[in-house]
Specification:
This protein is mostly helical. The chain has 8 helices and 2 strands; from the N terminus they run E-H-H-H-H-E-H-H-H-H. 34% of the residues are buried.
Length: 198
């Protein structure tokens, strides 16, 4: 499987050219994703609770609990799908629910063992955030570039009826990196995330 957090973003096979009307498409898509935004807002409590309690299964069992993958992993999955849909990277509407057949998939290796030291209350999470500082700095800088790219992502959709492969690779790569860093910080994986868009 490679890295224990797999984020795959399929090549855009086509979208209606009307989505590319001068940013209007992204605005309409954002309105269409209000139900997902409400669900993500409500699930923020689950993520907060999981962040407070997720060290316990690691300390006791040496691996993360399935409910953490379901709750926190589901939030990371839906966040990526919504952001990539609103940013016109994919034309597939983001479903609310578990994994399925979507153009954006986030899969976690739930059998991965983790060092029990990461389960020391709050110390494990604090150390992870500290060692992630280089990633956070790079992601911040890349976020500016990706934001600029997304601001003009409507143009290939308007002209070609599909998103440009370069936009899918760069914006998708950014979300892949972001999701892996988030999964590491939230104790969903023990593997330090690579400095890579791939």
């Amino acid at each position: 499987m490679g890295y224990p957090v797999q984020v795959t973003i399929a090549r855009d096979n086509g979208q209606n050219r009307l989505w590319g009307l001068l940013g209007l498409g992204s605005f309409v898509r954002a309105l269409l994703c209000i139900p997902q935004a409400i669900v993500l807002f409500l699930l923020a409590f689950v993520v907060w609770l999981a962040a407070l309690l997720s060290w316990i299964p690691i300390l006791v069992n040496g691996r993360q609990a399935g409910w953490v993958y379901w709750g926190v992993g589901g939030v990371l999955r839906l966040t990526a799908r919504v952001n990539l849909y609103v940013g016109l990277v994919t034309g597939a509407y983001p479903p609310i629910g578990p994994e399925g057949t979507h153009t954006v998939e986030v899969v976690f290796d739930q059998s991965e063992a983790q060092n029990r030291l990461w389960g020391i209350p709050f110390v494990g999470a604090l150390v992870r955030v500290i060692v992630l500082l280089p990633h956070l700095i790079v992601l911040w800088a890349l976020g500016i570039v990706v934001g600029f790219l997304v601001a003009f992502s409507w143009l290939p959709v308007l002209i070609n009826g599909r998103q440009a492969d370069l936009v899918v690779q760069l914006v998708g790569g950014y979300y892949r990196w972001y999701t892996r860093v988030s999964a590491y910080a939230l104790l969903l994986t023990a593997a330090y995330p690579p400095f890579s868009l791939d």
